[in-house]
């Protein structure tokens, strides 16, 4: 169960965020603000107390707070983003987490890791090796996790930006999968909710207590997840999709 979340309101500089999806166009800032408010309300309706941080114009991608920290039940780990333009975001998040966590750990150079590449399954953490997360970053985080009694293992990625771009764990051994993960033996022991390729964006969804929040506009995926017995909440995140961001990236949940 989660009780809290941290989010950051997008700044106007959002339109300059990193993207490999230019064909979707530039995000509409006023729409993004509204979508972000609705996202906050959705988290609240799942029972979370939400700490809403002020926009940070200096870092266009800083609304994607998930990437800069990994919060576990026993410690918070400040990451070291692989994207150069996102490195400075960590100081901002550390100052927020310091007041709440006694155990704060940090990833150091030359390690890089973005927490969108980390998926928690109980006390085990899967770490995607991506353009943003390197082996040194993964090794450092596994060492830290071991120190607190957790385990970690790496997963090679081919097509996705982050591990959780194509995978979401819904608890009870149920895993939402798309694309390259459908036949990946690493995940063969899980029961799969297969997302059709044309709706691959919906593979990034989040289980929050009694609900699963899914992106609006992916009806086949929504039905598949509902058919597994979950109560589903749809939230429109079209403006964040234009920057390759999804539902999980927009919050730290703990
Ligand atoms: C970036 O490229 O870093 C941002 N535009 C999107 C980050 C998305 N985060 C995530 O998937 N965890």
Descriptive terms for the model:
15 strands, 254 residues, alpha/beta, globular, binds citrulline, 21% helix
How would you characterize the overall build of this protein?
The chain is α/β, with parallel strands linked by helices and 254 residues long. Helix content is 21%, strand content 24%. The chain has helices at 29-45, 89-98, 135-147, 219-227, 238-241, and strands at 4-8, 49-53, 69-71, 76-78, 104-106, 118-121, 124-129, 151-156, 167-169, 174-177, 191-194, 206-208, 211-215, 231-235, 252-253. A hairpin with a 2-residue loop joins strand 6 and strand 7. It is globular, with a radius of gyration of 17 Å. The mean pLDDT is 97. Citrulline binds next to loops.
Tell me briefly what this model is.
The protein is an alpha/beta fold and 254 residues long.
- Helix percentage: 10-25%
What strand line-up does the widest sheet have? 2-1-15
Give the DSSP E fraction (strand runs of 2 or more residues).
Answer: 15-25%
Return the average pLDDT rounded to an integer: 97
- What general form does the structure show? globular
What structural class do the secondary elements suggest? alpha/beta
Largest sheet: 3 strands, mixed
Termini Cα gap: 8 Å
Provide a count of the helices: 5
Residue windows where pLDDT falls under 50 for at least 5 positions: none
Compute the CA-based radius of gyration. Answer: 17 Å
Counted beta strands: 15
Bound molecules: citrulline
H/E series, N to C? EHEEEHEEEHEEEEEEHEHE
